[in-house]
Design a protein that fits this description.
There is one protein chain. This protein has six helices and eight strands. The protein has about 190 residues and is of the alpha+beta class. It has two domains: about 30 residues; about 150 residues, Protein Transport Mog1p, Chain A (3-Layer(aba) Sandwich), CATH 3.40.1000. Strands 1, 2, 3, 4, 5, 6, 7 and 8 form an eight-stranded antiparallel β-sheet that branches. Strand 6 and strand 7 form a beta hairpin. The radius of gyration is 22 Å and the shape is globular.
């Protein structure tokens, strides 16, 4: 009888230890979605909306979320995305990056990065910094907003800002420039 009770205590102790570890691990997971302190890029993720991407493009992998050293998100920090290049973004109060990597059936690659900053004034400063938006762009105005566009055949990319967001869109085939501009216009309208 005593042997059975010791065995039950060992099993019970093991279960309590397992439950305690599980609870502790749950506390360590990053918080997303409905959290009151989650960055707005996660609460209002425009890239997660159905139908936002150009026709024929599919996500190569799930959307990726990067934060700062003080607020790591599910895929890590900006340094996990761009190594030392993240320093210049942090200088302007970077808080969150939502990254999408897409491809179509013709192997054309499309990248969309939505950077969120602490305040709109700092976003404008980041947009003006040549370490972020390099020289060699053409100013483009379309659908009521301006963008810095770069044509480096066969590639095309652009940057634009709205409120506290800086958006970068890249496509590996400059024949897709018009659909990318349409995508930029849709994103611009959706950013609040």
């Amino acid at each position: 009888m005593e042997v059975i009770m010791k065995s039950q205590y060992k099993k019970t102790g093991f279960l309590f230890a397992l439950m305690g570890c599980s609870f502790f691990m749950a506390l360590m997971l990053p918080v997303h979605g409905d959290s009151a302190d989650a960055p707005t890029a996660l609460k209002n993720d425009i890239l997660a909306e159905t139908g936002i991407f150009p026709s024929g493009f599919e996500l190569e992998e799930p959307l990726q979320y990067y934060g700062t050293d003080n607020h790591k998100l599910q895929d890590g920090t900006i340094y996990n995305y761009m190594n030392g290049g993240g320093v210049v973004y942090l200088k302007y109060g970077f808080s969150t990056l939502v990254h999408a990597s897409l491809k179509n059936t013709k192997n054309t690659r499309l990248t969309i990065d939505v950077f969120e900053f602490a305040e709109p004034g700092k976003t404008k400063s980041a947009y003006a910094d040549e370490a972020i938006c390099p020289p060699g762009f053409s100013n483009m105005e379309f659908n009521g907003f301006q963008a810095k566009a770069y044509f480096f055949s066969p590639e095309f990319f652009l940057y634009f800002i709205k409120n506290n967001r800086l958006v970068y869109i890249y496509v590996s085939n400059d024949e897709m420039a018009e659909p990318v501009k349409d995508l930029a216009a849709r994103l611009f309208q959706k950013i609040r």
